């Protein structure tokens, strides 16, 4: 007995496997995310009206009343409303002014190129009985998220995937300032694989499946 179509299906299967392997390799390389920014604020010196560190700058936005917006770096032994066992955190409404807009602004010292990014951080309410506060997160001019938290809102981890034309990572406490803002910790910015990479991966799977189906359906016997 001989098998018709065996050689033809063999090269189709080989081609499909090659396409799949190529796409899988691309996907594997793209899925190895790069961390562009990471800050838990634990190596920084606690301070009211904190100037920032090597990763973030506390931007002193001038107000019409001659005051400026600010942030505070608090933690164990110093106005500690941070997560238990997590060290320092940032009060996004610092100890300056009253009724200012914005209340505080924290901006990355690094500027990032256009692309797809993952923004992760932990955030809680002010935990001091003040009114609800709203924190806006920007990557360049792109508004990543706007989060309003009541005072008693517990710490929560947030993650957003976003694309941007480029710029700084910025956390803006909208205000009005009352010296008791939302609390920020554990910020990171990572790369996100391009959607095209995953599309190529699906093409590879499809080619492999089509070749397998063709092999099962087209093999016939002859004398």
Describe the structure.
With 223 residues, the chain is of the alpha+beta class. It has 2 helices and 13 strands. The strands form 3 sheets. Strands 2, 4, 5, 7, 10 and 12 form a 6-stranded antiparallel sheet that branches. β8 and β9 form a beta hairpin. α1 packs antiparallel against α2.
Q: What descriptive keywords fit this protein?
A:
Jelly Rolls; alpha+beta; disordered C terminus; 2 domains; 5-stranded antiparallel β-sheet; 223 residues; globular; single chain
What fraction strand?
A: 25-35%
Strand and helix order: EHEEEEEEEEEEEHE
* Terminus-to-terminus distance: 5 Å
What CATH calls the topology of the largest domain is Jelly Rolls
**Integer average pLDDT:** 83
CATH top level label of the largest domain:
Mainly Beta
Q: So how many helices? A: 2
Largest sheet: 6 strands, antiparallel
Approximate shape: globular
**Low-confidence runs of at least 5 consecutive residues:** 14-30, 197-201, 218-223
The radius of gyration computed from the alpha-carbon positions, rounded to a whole number of angstroms, is: 26 Å
Count of the separate structural domains = 2
**Helix/strand/pairing category:** alpha+beta
Tell me roughly what share of residues is in helical segments. Answer: 10-25%
- Can you count the beta strands? 13
């Amino acid at each position: 007995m001989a098998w018709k179509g065996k050689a033809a299906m063999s090269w189709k299967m080989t081609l499909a496997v090659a396409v799949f392997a190529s796409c899988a390799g691309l996907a594997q390389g793209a899925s190895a995310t790069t961390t562009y920014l990471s800050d838990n604020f634990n190596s920084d010196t606690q301070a009211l009206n904190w100037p920032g560190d090597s990763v973030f700058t506390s931007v002193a936005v001038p107000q019409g009343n001659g005051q400026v917006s600010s942030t505070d770096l608090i933690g164990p032994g110093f106005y500690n409303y941070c997560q238990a066992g997590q060290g320092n955190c940032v009060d996004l409404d610092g100890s300056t002014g009253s009724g200012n807009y914005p209340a505080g602004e924290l901006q990355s010292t690094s500027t990032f190129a256009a692309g797809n990014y993952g923004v992760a951080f932990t955030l809680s309410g002010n935990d001091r009985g003040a009114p609800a506060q709203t924190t806006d997160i920007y990557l360049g001019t792109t508004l990543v998220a706007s989060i309003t938290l009541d005072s008693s809102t517990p710490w929560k981890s947030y993650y957003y995937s976003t694309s941007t034309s480029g710029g700084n990572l910025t956390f803006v406490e909208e205000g009005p300032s009352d010296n008791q803002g939302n609390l920020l910790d554990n910020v990171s910015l990572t790369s996100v694989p391009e959607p095209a990479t995953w599309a190529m991966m699906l093409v590879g799977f499809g080619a492999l499946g089509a070749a397998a189906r063709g092999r099962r359906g087209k093999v016939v016997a002859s004398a």
